Amino acid sequence: xxxxxxxxxxxxxxxxxxxxxxxxxxxxxxxxxxxxxxxxxxxxxxxxxxxxxxxxxxxxxxxxxxxxxxxxxxxxxxxxxxxxxxxxxxxxxxxxxxxxxxxxxxxxxxxxxxxxxxxxxxxxxxxxxxxxxxxxxxxxxxxxxxxxxxxxxxxxxxxxxxxxxxxxxxxxxxxxxxxxxxxxxxxxxxxxxxxxxxxxxxxxxxxxxxxxxxxxxxxxxxxxxxxxxxxxxxxxxxxxxxxx
Length: 244
Prior knowledge:
The protein has 8 helices and 5 strands; from the N terminus they run ααββααβαββααα. It is of the alpha+beta class and 244 residues long.
């Protein structure tokens, strides 16, 4: 039994149940990494890479976040390398690190002595790296690395679940917007049909020509028309995602 990892995962599972958005989960992941890997004498970050683009999505301290940003900008550092080779990258002595000078200088200026990056392959489209920075030497011994690697394995399922839910929420929001746009356009088509005694196809063609002539989106034109004629904002869609 690995008590630090087990306790961190227990707290994380509680957050997963109570969280209202994925950002809370990502921040909990960063703090779990801090508890297991960095301890009190360090900071941690969580890097997400999708479609070749990496970004810091959670962190426990601004110093570590700034180091990550320098790494992304310069294109080199332990985090990106860990993701590229799918292996843990350890930097036991930042001062003697020669592979990534821009990142090294940023880490030294921030007061860090050592660093480590632990990659997590979440799914075929998404990679995550758990990054730890330490203010003291000898922070990443064999026992700490073993705990961190176990934590990374445990976190894969949590991250996959959370990020899939976030993608689903985005898709649902996009669908809701599309349905609301369709509804207001349909209302405007009905008004044009009544005014011009034409078919739905002819009414839509008239609206499109007006939209192009005024250089506004069809949805915005329809919204303004319905609001002006009805004297109030158009009702929004009552679409809600199905549960189960």
